[in-house]
Structure formats: C-alpha cells, structure tokens
Write a structure and sequence with these properties.
Blueprint: H1 7-22, H2 28-55, H3 57-68, E1 69-74, E2 81-82, E3 90-101, H4 102-106, H5 110-124, H6 128-136, E4 145-152, H7 154-163, E5 168-178, H8 181-188, E6 191-193, H9 196-201, E7 210-212, H10 215-219, H11 221-224, E8 229-235, E9 241-248, E10 255-258, H12 262-278, E11 284-289, E12 296-302, H13 312-316, H14 325-328, H15 338-347, E13 356-359, E14 362-365, E15 375-378, E16 384-386, H16 388-394, H17 397-405, E17 415-416, H18 425-435, H19 457-462, H20 469-476, H21 486-498, E18 501-503, E19 508-512, E20 518-521, E21 526-529, H22 534-549, E22 566-574, E23 579-587, H23 590-595, E24 605-610, H24 621-636
Parallel strand pairs: 2-10
Antiparallel strand pairs: 1-8, 3-4, 3-5, 6-7, 8-9, 10-19, 11-12, 11-24, 13-16, 13-17, 14-15, 18-21, 19-20, 22-23, 23-24
C-alpha cells in the first residue's frame, strides 16, 4: 500500500461525490409542480370561503340563529282578489295556529318528548303519528319550528297555554275564505299546504306554508303570498331570553284586480248549470272575452268544486270536478272550425264568394277496389245550392268537404263557379290552424293550460296507417283527430270578431299593494296580426250574421234578441259517434255597436260547450240566448 494513502481521504472522496449530487439544481418542472399545487390549494380555500360566506350564507346564518336563539314567525295576510268593479272574491279570516319549537323539543329526553307530543295531540285533536311526521321532515339545522295545525279553536288554544310549555307557540294567522265557491273555483283556485314535492322545487318554502294549488292562487302565488315576519330571541346558556332582533319585517301579499265581471259570472254559471241539467249532462264550458283587448269577462268549467273544502271525495270524483276543461280539455271543435276553413279557401283562391255547391245530403267517392261500394260522406241534412254565406249559416258539410279536399270527378255537377278540385288539402289546412294558434297555448294567466293536437299524415304513417281522402273531409268539418281547447277556439273566433288580430287572453289586470302602489299592470298584447285578410274575414262575418238573421240559420233562435249577434254552431261526434258535444260561438258585430252608439269596449265573444248533448248544438242555443240577453240589459243598455 502506498505510503501517502489514507483511509480518511478515501471516505471523504466518496462523501464528496454524494455531496455533489445533492447540490445539483432542481428542474424547472419541479418548481412548476410545487407552484401549481400551492395555487390550487389557495384557490380551493378561497372557493370554500366564498361558498360558506356568500353562497351558503343564508344556510349558515340560519343555522347559527337556530343554535343561538328562537326564531318566531309573524304571519301575514295573503293578497286579495277583486273583480273588474272592485268586488272582493276572497276573504282573509283571522284564526289561531299552533307552532312547535324544534330546538326546545330536542332538549327533552325521550320519555318527556313522548309525553309532550301525546298531550299536544290530545289538545289540538291531531294524531301523534301526524305530529311526528311533521317533525321528521323538518331540517332542524335551518328551521327552528314547524306549524302543527293551521287553525285551532280558542278552547284548544287555552288547553295548550295551560300546559305552560316553552316549546309551543300559539299565534295569530289568516285563513283564506272563498266567496261563491263553485262559481269562481276554477278561476280563483285554492291554496293548500306545502308538500315534499313543493319543497324539492322551492327550498325557500317551509313545511305547512300555504301556497296556491290551482287557478290565480297558483299562477300568482309568489305575488299573493307576501312575506312572513321573523324575530329572533337570543338566549344565554341557561336558556333565558336576553335580547331580540327583527330579522325580517312582515309584508302583506299584493292584491289582484281581475278582468272578471262577477255578476255576469254568477249569471252565466247558473244558466249554464241549469242548461246542462235540462239535457242530462254533467259537464260543460262557458267563456266570455273582449276580442279587442283579450280581457276575460267570465270563465266557467262544470262540474265545479267547493274550494273552501277540498276533500278526498272531490279528488276521487269520477266527473273530475278539479279538471279545468277551459284550458286543459281537448275537444273536436265540430263545425265551429268552418270559418277558419272558409278563410283559408278564400285566401288560397280555392273558391270565391260566388261559388255554389249543391248539397243533396251526401257525396259519393268511388272505391277503386269495389266499384259497387263507393264511400259515402253525408251532410247533416240536404241544403240545396249553397254559397259561402249560406254554407256558413246552414253549416253545410258538403260545401266544406269541397273546400277541404275538393269533390270527386263523378260529383262535378254539384259545382257552379270556381272550385279547385283538389281543395286546400291537409297541408294548407294545417298551415292556417298554425297561423291561428290551434297548436299553441294561448298564454292565459292560469296554470295547467295545454295546446291542441293537429292531425298530420306523417303521424298516421308512423303507425303504419294511410292518410285517406276521408280523413281530410272529416277534419274540414272539425271531426276526426283535430283536437283543441275551448280557450284556443274562443281566441281564434275573437280574432275573426276583431278583424284578424289574435290577442293574448288575460285575467289579472292589475297587481297592486295595500297602499295602491301598482306593481304590475297588464297591457293588451297582440300575438299575431292577420288584418291583411280582413276583406275575407268580413265576408265570413256576413255568413255568421246570417246564421242568426236568416230563418235557415243554425242559430236563428237568437234572432229576436234586443242585440245583434253573429254566430257559429257546432256538433262534434265522439266515442265512435255514441256521444255528441254541442258548441256555440258568437259575438257582437262591430257595425251593430257603431250603429247603436255602443262603445266597442263592450264588444264580447261568448263560447258555450255542452258535453254529451243529446240534440247537438240546439242544446247550447237557449243558454247562449239568455247570456247575450243578460249582457245587453245589464252591460249595454244601462
């Protein structure tokens, strides 16, 4: 071994190699990785702080309040609903309700809790199970109380006070009372307690809050409901109240002034109900609307219900009294569709006003497979030669078969003047139905409105069925698969009454506070304007006037009214022709109102529909006559 070799030096050399490796600089990627990690950690902390402090502020704020004190609710009055003349259609009655304070209940042991719930249930005559169910769905972290019963008697209130329970709060409340219940029930609707489904849709609600369930009460619930007041009482460690603070001032709900004429509604309802009873029917619809503005004067759906007393019997009634036939019922319109078919035919030059077609009571369409067995399409009776005006007045099916799908060559002798043999066809018919909104909701301010169903060849083809000539014939007279709501029907007729403008119908005219500050005011809204077709519409109006004025008109029964009326009747066969629905639509013509010096603001369109009417449209006419007569005597002549 060399003399100068030392063990220590050898070890130090090896150590130096390792130290050289440790002193190597970190790569740029490492710095970026560490920097990114720090950035995302800080970002996560910021987001969490924002979530807690801003996004979930209400949650944690309420949770803190529940832990620190007792939140006491102060009930508020629901907004009033008035008719067009200021008559109140609802009342708010002062009642007593009982509320259970959840934190106080949770302080009790299990035995004390059971006894307390038992005593409360006996005092307010509610089952223990029902009370436990109410408690079980309350989020005790954010809600400090639950309403056990919305209305108790003074005797029950005294029993509760006698218990001297700190966890019970007996307080003033308001109960909704409806006036002339069945007359206005589909219009006004009713209120009910919040359900679990309601809570899922709106977390701001509390269990046992009263909210609108149908009608105006539902549509404008957020305006009518108002805001309950809240006071928090702070407690010390011994549970003693040491301070209180107002968290939220109570605010009464907004009031609604409607377009409804209450006295007219009462008369219309009773007259329609009697008309149904006279023919052994249980169901029907009555609508009155101002065609110049879209203001609804009357809405009636029968059978109706008592909105002060919603029971299981009402819910299970086979007649479906809660079902609003005005906006949710779909019906074949029958011959009331004919004015629209006539407008389409005139505008598309299928016919003109002078075209005449002979109705011998039926037409025959050749059958290529069985020549000796032609298809027969009938009129409701032979009418002879009819033009546009008399076809509308008489409601001739043959004339409208020709407009809708033409006449076969073998029936060419039935035609005098211009007629395109192909007729409008299903595509053109559908085009005009779409123009006049028969496939859309009208937009009326009531919940649960549905839109009509328009038949289409492609739909039948998907079901491996062929669209036939007879299908077009049927829908040309409002039969077959064409389905619309009474609201859609009256709105299209209103457009014919005003010269071509489709108005958006509405019920709430003004929403305002108790000190008369206006929150919202509804202005008439034109959905679509077909005034360019007014020259054709005027010709159709003549035919609808003849329906009342001419002895052969289907609405001639109205001829001796003190007011001039234009009308169209309709009979729709349903359930394989086993049942008949009767329709009437009519209005006061502009020229009559101008001639007699009556303001056009008093123009009105009326629809009457009677389900299962044994004699068709004839059953609707007496009701229509009396409704127009009442309106003239009470709203026009005065």
């Amino acid at each position: 071994m060399p003399k100068d070799f030392l063990l220590e030096e050898s070890i130090l050399d090896d150590l130096a190699k390792d130290l050289d490796l440790l002193e190597m600089p970190l790569s740029e990627k490492a710095f970026k990785f560490v920097g990114s990690a720090v950035f995302f950690v800080i970002l996560g902390v910021i987001i969490r702080l924002f979530f807690i402090g801003v996004w979930s502020n209400n949650f944690y704020h309420n949770k803190a309040l529940v832990n620190a004190g007792q939140i006491v609710k102060i009930s508020t009055e629901r907004g009033m609903i008035y008719d067009r003349f200021g008559e109140s259609l609802v009342n708010n009655l002062s009642v007593i309700r009982v509320r259970l304070k959840i934190p106080e209940l949770l302080k009790l042991n299990e035995q004390e809790r059971h006894l307390t719930i038992k005593n409360i249930s006996e005092a307010i005559e509610t089952s223990e199970e029902e009370i436990r169910d109410l408690i079980s769905v309350v989020d005790s972290e954010t809600k400090s109380s639950v309403v056990l019963k919305d209305k108790i008697t003074e005797v029950q209130a005294e029993k509760l006070k006698a218990f001297d329970l700190n966890l019970i709060q007996v307080e003033k409340n308001y109960k909704r009372e409806y006036i002339d219940t069945e007359i206005f029930s589909h219009l006004i609707g009713y209120i009910g307690f919040v359900t679990k489904a309601d809570l899922a849709e709106n977390s701001l609600l509390s269990l046992n809050d009263a909210i609108g369930k149908s009608g105006l009460e539902s549509y404008y619930d957020d305006k009518l409901r108002g805001v309950e007041g809240e006071i928090v009482y702070y407690r010390n460690a011994k549970g003693e109240i040491i301070d209180n603070k107002s968290l939220q001032d109570f605010k009464s709900g907004y009031n609604i002034k409607t377009t409804i004429d209450a006295d007219f509604q009462r008369y219309f309802y009773n007259r329609l109900r009697n008309g149904l009873a006279a023919v052994g029917s249980e169901s029907g619809v009555g609508i009155a609307i101002n065609p110049k503005t879209g203001k609804i004067l009357s809405l009636i759906s029968l059978p109706s219900f008592d909105n002060n007393n919603i029971t299981t019997n009402v819910l299970n009634d086979r007649r479906k009294p809660l079902f609003n036939r005005i906006i949710s019922g779909l019906y074949s319109p029958g011959s009331t569709i004919k004015p629209l078919v006539a407008l389409a035919a005139l505008n598309e030059e299928i016919v003109n006003e002078q075209t005449k077609i002979f109705s011998r009571g039926y037409i025959e369409v050749p059958n290529p497979y069985f020549p000796d067995k032609p298809s027969t399409f009938v009129d409701w009776k032979p009418h002879g030669w009819v033009d546009l005006y008399s076809a509308l007045a008489r409601s001739s099916n043959i004339y409208f078969y020709a407009l809708g799908a033409g006449l076969p060559v073998n029936e060419s002798e039935l035609i005098q003047g211009q007629l395109k043999n192909s007729g409008l066809g299903i595509e053109k018919l559908k085009e005009y139905w779409l123009k006049f909104g028969l496939n859309e909701k009208t937009g009326i301010d009531l919940p649960a409105e549905v839109s009509g169903f328009l038949p289409d060849p492609s739909i039948k083809e998907k079901n491996r069925q062929q669209w036939r000539l007879g299908d077009t014939y049927n829908i040309s007279i409002g039969q077959g698969d064409l389905l619309i709501t009474p609201m859609e029907l009256v709105n299209y007729i209103a457009a014919f009454a005003n010269g071509g403008k489709i108005q958006k119908p509405f019920v709430a005219e003004k929403i305002f506070s108790n000190n008369d500050n206006i929150f919202y005011e509804t202005e008439p809204e034109i959905i679509a304007d077909y005034s360019k077709l007014s020259s054709y519409i005027k010709e159709i109006q003549k035919g609808m006037i003849d329906a009342v004025a001419k002895p052969y008109g289907t609405a001639y029964l109205l001829n001796d009214l003190p007011v001039k009326v234009a009308a169209k009747t309709g009979t729709a066969q349903i359930e394989g022709n086993k049942k008949i629905n009767a329709f009437f639509v009519g209005y006061l013509p502009d020229e009559y109102l101008v001639e007699t010096g009556v303001s056009l603001d008093k123009q009105i369109v009326v629809l009457i529909m009677i389900e299962n009417a044994k004699e068709g449209s004839l059953n609707a006419l007496p009701v229509a006559k009396d409704v127009f007569n009442w309106y003239y005597k009470n709203r026009i002549s005065q």
